[in-house]
Structures are given as C-alpha cells and as structure tokens.
Specification:
Blueprint lengths: L1 H13 L4 E5 L1 H23 L17 E15 L3 E15 L2 E17 L5 E15 L10 E3 L4 H5 L2 H6 L9 H6 L4 E4 L2 E7 L4 E3 L2 E12 L2 E2 L22 E6 H13 L5 E8 H7 L2 H5 L5 E17 L2 E14 L5 E19 L2 E16 L6 H27 L3 E2 L6 E4 L4 E3 L2 E10 L5
Antiparallel strand pairs: 1-10, 1-12, 2-3, 3-4, 4-5, 5-6, 7-8, 8-10, 9-10, 10-11, 12-21, 13-14, 14-15, 15-16, 16-17, 17-18, 19-21, 20-21
Length: 443
C-alpha cells in the first residue's frame, strides 16, 4: 500500500489547479438574456413547418401548421450542489385552416449541469426535462393568460417535445463546441503557447459555478515541465454575492510558470546595444585600448541563468529575473571580454483587453550586478555599474514589454469577451472580476 501511495502522490501534485473562475448568478442571468433570441431562432427552425403546398380538391389539407414562435420567458438559475435550472415559456400560433388560429403555450423546465467527458473536456448535460403544451383560450371574453391543458390534439403530434428535450442544451449560447474552446491552446509568442485544462467537473455553490483549471505551457509544440507549486491553490470564494458575471483568479504560481515558460522559449534572452563603444570605454578602462584596435559598439548579451520568480503582495506584483550578461564588442562578430550576473526586480502592471491579460513591466525597482569572475577589482566593478546600469534599467523592461505586448489569453469560451474589468492583487493570488459580453459578430 505504501508503494502505491508513493506512486499516487506525484500524480496528485502534478494535477493541482493554479487558476480558475466562478460564474456568478449574475453571469447566468446574462447568459440567459443573450441566449433568448438564439433560442427563439432555433425553436422557429425546429417547430415551424415549411409552407404546405396549395391544397387540391382531391386532397384537401387540414394539417395543423405553426405560424409563429415567440419566446416569452427564458431564465437560467443556479441550484447549489446540483447544477442549473432552465425555464422556457414559448407562445405558439397554430393554424389548421386559413381562418382559424389558436394560441398554444409550450413550457420547458430542464435541469442542466456541466460534466467532464472521458476526453477531459467539459460538456453541458441535461439531467431532467419536463415539457408541457397548453392551449391558451383566445376568445375576447376569456383572460388570455389563463391556459388549459390541450387534450391530445394534432399539435402534440406535430411538436416533438421529446426531440426538444434531447437537444434543449442547444437553446443556450454555450453548447459543447464552445465549452471545448475553453481548453484550446492560445499563443503567447510565436513558439510559446498556453492551455487551460479543467481538472474536474465544476462545483456549484451559492456564489456560483466554480471551475478549477491547471495551466500547461508548450514551447515549440512540446509541453514543458514547470516549477512545482509550494502551496495548493483553491478558488477564493467571495464573501457575498458579486455583481460581476465572472470572477477569475490566478495564483502566484501561475505567473511564475508563465515567466518560466518564456525563459524556456528563449524570449527573455536579450541583446542590448549600449551607448558606449570600445574607444569611449578605453577612456575609462585603459586595458580596452590594447584589446580592440578599431572602435566597435559595446553589446550586452543577456541569458537567464535560473528560473524567474513572481511575488504577489497586497496591491503589488513583482518579477525577479536572474540573468548572466556577456559584455563584448562587435555586432556581427561578437567578442566577449567580461561576464556579469544581473539580478533585476521589476514591478508588474496588469490589465485586461478583450480576453487577454496584458502584463507589462512598469518600473525596475532594483538591479544588482555582480561579476561572474573574481579576477576583476572592486574599482572596475563599480565602474561597470556606472556604465551599464542605465542601459539595463531602460532596455530590460523594454525587451520584456515587447515580448508580452500581445498579452496572454485568459480562459474564455468562443464568442464572448470581457468588460468592466477590475483587477485586485492580493498576497499569493490575483482576482479579476469582470462582465461577459457577447461579441457583435457572433450574433
């Protein structure tokens, strides 16, 4: 048993969430609101029969035909610990002859939940569905809103209520094709991608539908190993109901993993052209004159020497980069004459545009230079700091911002974008409450 447990523990730690989201009751109401016209369109297509051919004396037509479909009510509510309840009321206009029109009401009550299929994708499942069809009395003396049960009419046969229940999830705007898009790989740089994988079926609480996700990164199409999270991450639930449609949360480990993936892809390696040349450097360091006979530009080529680290505190996010810079001369034929370790601590600024998180270096807070070799005296070390710190302070943030300028895609489903975003940085995690907005082109 102990051997079995020792095998299970690594598997468990490798499948721990590092981000997630809560779809709130407000978010469900918005999804119902934007799904209502879509549902009406689908029901029209399914329920309205094509125009009947002109009746001939030999074969008179007395077939019922649905001539109008209007969704009067469409709601989606949360059922804690269980799932969602979909309630639809549809007004139908039914004719059996040119002069006779009846009004019917189709009511659908369905229980839905999101499950995880064997392929690891989330899918919307109908667990229970109860359709009823009633006739609305149409005489002026009768209250139009008082329905009564239709007794086995031909309309019941024409409206295949069982078929409607089988496909009731298609009345919503997030069918399974869109849910699968949640786990699609998204590009960060040309050779680096991010993917958000659901770890289990969502949980349902009074605050909303909670989805836990694990991030994986691919470099040149291959998933890369990431630092192990020191602390398991769980979605922080809001203390009270949130007016936002969705609350996204990202752990400190997520951001460290992101920068580690960028390091692995080589995106954080920088080549910095300083304002110095070998001639101007020789004025301060006499040995340079004997090393280079012609005046050449001085270049810093910096590569990461260990994984970056992101630290989240209240209202503050910083990244620590650990670089080794080769200082040398010449742009085409680089000749290194000194190796310097550069440790940079930079403040991060976070914002959201559409469905992307824009991460940028707002300011460098601290830089430490230390010589990688000990055969240079302290005077030269101080001189190097004076000469190269300004270049590093300006160029390292500029290079990182250039890498990240396209942003990092957030977990999202196709056709929806994020608005009214409010980012708050807490110790160990970032919270992003936002509203959903259906993109106009999807309509």
């Amino acid at each position: 048993l102990s051997i079995l447990l020792s095998l299970l523990v690594p598997a468990h730690t490798s499948r721990s969430p590092d981000c997630g989201g809560i779809l709130t009751p407000s978010g469900l109401r918005y999804l119902a609101e934007v799904s209502k016209p879509h549902a009406e369109s689908v029901l029209r297509r399914d329920l309205m029969a094509p125009p009947a051919p002109a009746p001939s004396p030999a074969s008179p037509s007395s077939r019922n035909q649905i001539i109008s479909v209007k969704v009067d009510k469409f709601s989606l509510t949360l059922v804690p610990d269980t799932g969602m309840r979909l309630s639809i009321e549809v007004d139908l206009g039914v004719t059996s002859a040119p002069s006779a029109t009846r009004e019917m009401r189709l009511s659908i009550l369905a229980d839905l939940h999101v499950d995880m299929n064997p392929e690891g994708n989330l899918e919307l499942v109908t667990s229970d569905c109860k359709p009823t069809l009633e006739e609305v009395q149409s005489t002026e003396e009768t209250d139009r809103s008082a329905p009564h049960k239709s007794s086995g009419s031909d309309v019941d046969k024409q409206i295949n209520v069982e078929k409607i229940c089988l496909e009731v999830s298609k009345l919503l705007l997030f069918p399974n094709e869109r849910l699968m898009s949640l786990a699609a790989p998204f590009p960060i740089t040309p050779n680096c991608q991010v993917q958000y994988l659901p770890l289990a079926a969502p949980m349902y609480s009074e605050q909303g539908i909670i989805i836990s996700l694990q991030t994986t990164f691919q470099v040149a199409g291959t998933a890369i190993p990431l630092p192990v999270s020191p602390v398991p991450f769980s979605m922080p639930e809001p203390a009270s109901s949130s007016p936002s449609h969705l609350i996204l949360a990202f752990s400190e480990h997520f951001y460290t993993s992101l920068f580690s993936a960028l390091e692995e892809s080589g995106a954080l390696n920088v080549s910095l052209l300083s304002s110095l040349t070998t001639a101007t450097l020789a004025e301060r360091i006499t040995q340079m004159g004997s090393l280079f006979q012609e005046d050449l530009p001085v270049v810093l080529q910096a590569v990461t020497r260990s994984s970056p680290h992101v630290v989240l505190e209240e209202d503050k996010a910083t990244v620590q980069l650990f670089l080794t810079a080769q200082i040398g001369a010449g742009s085409s034929l680089f000749q290194s004459f000194l190796s310097v370790n550069v440790d940079v601590t930079a403040r991060l600024h976070l914002s959201v545009a559409d469905t992307r998180m824009i991460i940028s270096v707002a300011a460098v807070e601290d830089i430490e230079l230390s010589l990688a070799t000990s055969d240079v005296g302290p005077i030269l070390a101080a001189l190097l700091e004076e000469l190269f710190l300004p270049t590093i302070r300006e160029e390292v943030p500029a290079q990182i911002n250039k890498v990240l300028r396209q942003g990092v895609f957030l977990p999202h489903i196709a056709s929806f974008t994020y608005t009214d975003v409010n980012i708050t940085i807490h110790k160990d995690y970032v919270l992003i409450p936002c509203n959903l907005q259906l993109e106009a082109r999807a309509g």
